[in-house]
Design brief:
There is one protein chain. This protein is of the alpha+beta class and 414 residues long. Helices cover 49% and strands 19% of the residues. It has a 5-stranded antiparallel sheet. Strands 8-9-10-12-11 form a 5-stranded mixed sheet. A hairpin with a 2-residue loop joins strand 9 (331-339) and strand 10 (342-349). Helix 3 (193-238) packs antiparallel against helix 4 (241-264). The longest helix is centred in the middle third of the chain and has 53 residues, at 127-179. The chain is rod-shaped, with a radius of gyration of 48 Å.
């Protein structure tokens, strides 16, 4: 559209210039056309440019006298410049094309000399000018496209170089999660230093809050164990069965929180998750808790480090594997795989399982898989919250081992 507008505008300017030149030539012809004493019209050509005397020179004129006779320029030879049909306006300009493909711009003008009407036609061949204009605009368009392409490439490289600072920042933050360094220890570009300072402050606050929470849970659990043991001894001595059940339930809750703290370890918040290594270490703990159960793990596809919080994943799979160990009879099997951008883990046991119509009911808050086993269903609620936070899915089905199969699918970025 821009190129077409440029062509039309430039052509209009050239035609306007050429019409001005033709009007000047008509003025010269009017001054050179005189009426003799004998009543004949005489045109003095000495005042004209010699170009009108060269055959097909590209400049032509024709003059229609009052008696309808016509004076032709020598250059016009047998050209007919008058329009083929009568026109309402006798003073106008128009384009016409000759048999030898000349693009003529014709200026027609009617004037009165000595009180008699005379019509002038003056024409200029615009073929060379139009071709030159087209060639120039084609070349200019090509050069413009090349320049615009170069500018786009330069702009892209400039923007890419400008955003390199954020790629460096991403790498530094990744080192914070993987290696435990602080952002202050990394070589941060000055352009993003204020942002880094705020991020580091947030990381420090979350780290401190996480450590305080773990310490408080561990300290509370240890502090409660001693008075709980005293209450249990007193209840056994009195043979008070109404206290033994609730005390045992409290003891199970405390043991579970201590196991969770042991599973989570002492790492800082964040970090990538290595499924194969971390779950293998988790099974070592589970074999000590459920010594009569055989735990096994298989990896169906190669696994890399995943951008998933290590502590969240250990708490998620720790609860699911612990539940499988509670309800299984002899075996618990874990299968790991990555399909596309989804991490999959299937935990199967050979226990009694759950009726199919209760699969969706299992994940409701407070639901327990089996009332005969100690617990409050809190572990499954925690699993549900973690999976929802990662926009994943937890689905229960019948296990090939005969019990329950818990399938976890979590989207990952690598």
């Amino acid at each position: 559209m821009f190129f077409l507008s440029l062509v039309v505008t430039t052509r209009y300017i050239l035609k306007s210039y050429a019409i001005g030149h033709l009007e000047h030539d008509i003025d010269s012809m009017i001054r050179s056309l005189t009426l003799t004493d004998t009543g004949d019209w005489q045109l003095e050509t000495e005042n004209f440019s010699e170009i009108y005397n060269s055959v097909y020179s590209g400049s032509y004129y024709q003059i229609q006298l009052p008696d309808k006779s016509i004076i032709y320029s020598r250059s016009a030879f047998d050209l007919k410049l008058a329009p083929p049909r009568p026109q309402e306006e006798l003073s106008m300009s128009y384009d016409t094309e000759t048999e030898d493909d000349q693009d003529l711009l014709v200026l027609q003008l009617e004037v009165e000399i000595e009180g008699q009407p005379i019509i002038f036609w003056v024409a200029e061949d615009m073929t060379f000018i139009y071709h030159t204009l087209l060639n120039f605009l084609t070349f200019a368009g090509f050069v413009s496209i090349v320049l615009i392409s170069l500018l786009i490439i330069i702009q892209q490289r400039f923007l890419s170089h400008s955003f390199d600072v954020f790629n460096q920042l991403k790498d530094k933050i990744q080192r914070v999660t993987d290696e435990g360094i602080t952002l202050n220890e990394a070589n941060i570009p000055s352009e993003v230093e204020p942002l880094v300072t705020q991020i580091q402050s947030l990381v420090d606050q979350l780290k401190l809050r996480n450590q305080r929470t773990r310490s408080a849970i561990g300290d509370l659990s240890h502090e409660l164990k001693r008075p709980l043991q005293l209450l249990s001894i007193n209840a056994e001595q009195r043979q008070d069965q109404s206290l033994l059940g609730p005390l045992q339930e409290i003891k199970n809750i405390i043991d579970r929180e201590l196991r969770r703290a042991k599973v989570a370890g002492s790492r800082d918040i964040g970090g990538q998750f290595d499924p194969e290594t971390e779950l293998a270490d988790l099974l070592v703990v589970m074999r000590k808790i459920h010594s009569n159960i055989e735990f096994s793990i298989s990896v169906k596809t190669s696994l890399n480090l995943l951008n998933l919080d290590r502590d969240d994943m250990l708490e998620l799979f720790g609860n699911l594997i612990d539940n499988a160990g509670k309800f299984s009879q002899h075996k618990v099997h874990i299968s790991l795989s990555v399909q596309g951008y989804t991490f999959n883990c299937v935990i199967e046991d050979d226990g009694p399982g759950v009726p199919e119509e209760q699969y969706e009911h299992v994940l409701k808050p407070g639901t327990r898989l089996d009332e005969s086993v100690q617990g409050h269903g809190i572990g499954l609620r925690i699993c549900r919250d973690i999976i929802n936070g990662y926009k994943g899915k937890l689905v229960f089905a019948r296990s090939e081992l005969g019990g329950l199969a818990a399938s976890v699918s979590i989207p990952v970025s690598n």
